[in-house]
Amino acid sequence: xxxxxxxxxxxxxxxxxxLLAVCLKNGIYVPHLCDLPGDPDPGGACRxxxxxxxxxxxxxxxxTVTAAEGMAVSTDAPRVRELQRSALQLLLSAHHIDCAACAxxxxxxxxxxxxxxxxxxxxxxxxxxxxxxxxxxxxPVFDYLPHRCILCGKCVKTCRNRHAATRLSFAGRGLDTxxxxxxxxxxxxxxxxxxxxxxxxxxxxxxxxxxxxxxTASPRMPPx
Length: 224
Prior knowledge:
Blueprint: E1 2-6, E2 9-13, H1 19-25, E3 50-53, E4 60-61, E5 72-74, H2 78-93, H3 109-117, E6 142-144, H4 154-162, E7 169-171, E8 178-180, H5 190-195, H6 197-201, E9 207-209
Parallel strand pairs: 1-5
Antiparallel strand pairs: 1-2, 3-4, 3-5, 6-9, 7-8
Helix pairs in contact: 2-3
């Protein structure tokens, strides 16, 4: 076991544990959207779990940093909060906000983070600036709604970890990047009917079942 300090509080952790996991386990909420527990190669895609560490020249993503003996961490420094709010605003700039019509409403990672950071989610006052994208309804089990997708990669990684043959991947570049199911057929996606893990881990309801619903998820919620 190792001992480190987070927000002035001494906490213990198993050696080799990622810092984000240590924070969450000890009831210290750090905004995050792309984290998958146990992921051996986290990419810090959402850029929300920033923290200040010791003498590091800039805030780092807690999901990519391994906790170390004697490490001193600040999760609520003013610079951290400013950068987190900027990262969230960047995600929202490409996200069509229509919470009332979304299957993830009240079970949404963006709502959780926005509430914690004190940012109000409201419909875009300039409609048309956010690319809607055409829903991909070719998969036999679920539909993909690109205007909700934040490209966190959780669905792609989850599918890869659960199945020998990857059924989901990214396609396109830049603002045109989307998640694709490679034109799955009923035969190739038979296992998806029982699995549904990709839709379950989606934090924003970009993957929904054919009836428009979302599988029950168990997100880690921030403190009130």
